[in-house]
Amino acid sequence: MRRWTGSGLLTVMVGTGAWAQSASTLEAVRLHRAEARTQASQELEACVARKCPEQGRLALLTGTLALAEGDVAEARTLLTGAEVPALLRPYLAYYQGQAHFYAGDAAAAAAAFARALEKAPPALAPEARARLGESLLAAGRAKEAAPMLEAAATQEPGAELLFQRAQARKALGNTAGEQADLRAVALRYPTHPYADEALGLLEALKPPLRLTLAEHLQRAQGLLDAGDARRALVELERAEAAKLVRARPDQARVALVRAQALFATGQKPKAEEALAVARRGPPSVAAEAAYVTARRAMKTDDNAAARKLMQALEKEFPTEAPADEAGFFVGWLDLQAGHFADAVKAFTDFDQRHARSRRRDEAMWYRALAHLRLGQYPQTRAVLDTLVSTFPQSSLVPQARYWAARGQALEGASADVIGPAYETVITSAPNSYYALLATERLRELGKQPPPPFPEAPRPPKGSEVPAELKLAVALTEAGLFRDAAEDVRARAARIRDPEQALAFAGALLRLGEYGNAHMVAARHLWGRAFGARMPEALAAFYPRAFENAVQSEASRYEVSPYLVWAIMRRESAFRPEVASAADARGLMQVIPPTARAIARKLAEPEPAPAELFSPSLSIRYGAWYLSQLMKRFAHPALAAAAYNAGPEAAVKWVKDKGVLPLDLFVEEIPFRETRGYVKQVLADLYLYQSFYGKDTSPQRLSLTVPVPHTEGVEF
């Protein structure tokens, strides 16, 4: 069944007609609030009583809410006979099919899904086709179901479709196809409920089809990657019970996966015993086991031990894949420890031994940084020049150019020599953190930096809702937010040229669809925005999303609205519906524990996790939290670092390396993710200020790292 999830899409509407539901009901639906269905039902009753023309749309919404809560009988009653505008009829038929299917009437479901498929838009057609095939199969019409399921499973081969296609293939006598699908379900989707059922069906065959050791290991690794370490251990036990683990190489492979699962379940002594077994295996397995040991040392901050382990790994297994990573980390750990001469040597050796490594450009950068920290400025420039010429498409080119110029400055070169180098950084990478740094360095030299962008963002002109977005608007007016979101994404995927993308993004901006406008721009308008510097393209990259809420909350909590937008851009790319693997939610990616802590500070009721998808609540909590971080850390770079990695980590980094100038301090933040996060937030913050700030004097970036206050926000 489709799950009802608030999309946050099309939240700011322009004159598109009357609404069937009240704003409060639509908000309740979008936020999954418990009262949503009750509110919708009351509005439907009132509409029926006064014979209003919106009965069909209200019945559609109320029926889908009943369906989402498992009230199938009520959903069938509401959806049967409802009349809706032509644009919504495929969706009405689709949800009628859902209600019939879960009521056990497969034949009626098939008829409804067939009606939905007749005029289904691109976003709905794959689901309607898949559900039609499932319904036909359940109705005993396997021959009719087969082509539907073949097409659906080929287009989107998920566990459910593959399992259903296996059933259709069995009914048609396609035994080989059935077995292939069941095996695919068991191996590719080990955490799905159908995976165990597929295994049972394979084992029930005569003769039974049993998994090989490699397949058991594949399932165990999949379970481990999904965070289900206990089931991974059970899978390995099954392989051993089947007497598939005989030779020493096989024992080593099993032991390697077992060790990682045991570590994940807190069984350290047993895990280390398993690693010892893996280390006695073939070189490929032994090298992986050694790498697991070294990485665990890094995770516990025992960097000295980690370095020794990485160095030993590279020496013992020079031709195995982990040797590449190990060699890189030897140099990186030297750099983190302040052993800059050792880091230069380690990265030089790495470049010679791992000429095909994907990390070569990164290793060159860190070697240059080590030279810089030693005051070896000519060597710094030589390595960075090699990086730029060898890897001209590398994302590290802007920072290589900046630090080459910075090395010249530290060596004492004149402003006339350094200035053009900084200007090149700005003109070649205008939206980058390094353009911001180069701008500050030019101002230090008393030179006027070139503007990164001649004009501020300006949305494309237009007022009409384009034809390709009319369905999404109709779905939103009906309260079908999830369907509206899927329709927008499906139509955006069909864009093929920048002109079309520019018009589409402009329309999305006018509809308040900032996230989807940004997505379209990122796919199609990069060159228009950052090459041609088109203000119409820039508007989709740097919108003043949810402007009223951002300005209001920023003013209330005395924090820059531009910092709120910069964080929002990095966290969610302006998409209210986003949830991360760490359960961060909404525009500002607030996790439920942090939201509860903020609510306590604000002396208000703790929000339900689903409420964190609300743009207004997410912006309010994000603005409050940023204001507290700025009060404690007094610099946007540190506030961004704390927002990403936590205040405790930011305090530690300042304590360890706060004497460095800001540009070097950021480069030596030990977490890769946080380094990138801080750089992007700073770049976006100052671009937003330059684009939309009312102060005619340029905002300056302080290159001094302040000492954080001992008191302040700690969560």
UniProtKB/TrEMBL annotation:
One of its GO terms (cellular component) is periplasmic space. PANTHER family: SOLUBLE LYTIC MUREIN TRANSGLYCOSYLASE (PTHR37423:SF5), SOLUBLE LYTIC MUREIN TRANSGLYCOSYLASE-RELATED (PTHR37423). Keywords: Signal. It comes from Cystobacter fuscus. GO terms for molecular function: hydrolase activity, hydrolyzing O-glycosyl compounds; peptidoglycan lytic transglycosylase activity. Belongs to the transglycosylase Slt family. GO terms for biological process: peptidoglycan metabolic process. Residues 550-657 form the Transglycosylase SLT domain. InterPro entries: Lysozyme-like_dom_sf (IPR023346), Lytic_TGlycosylase_superhlx_U (IPR008939), TPR-like_helical_dom_sf (IPR011990), Transglyc_AS (IPR000189), Transglycosylase_SLT_dom_1 (IPR008258). This is Murein transglycosylase. The keyword Signal applies.
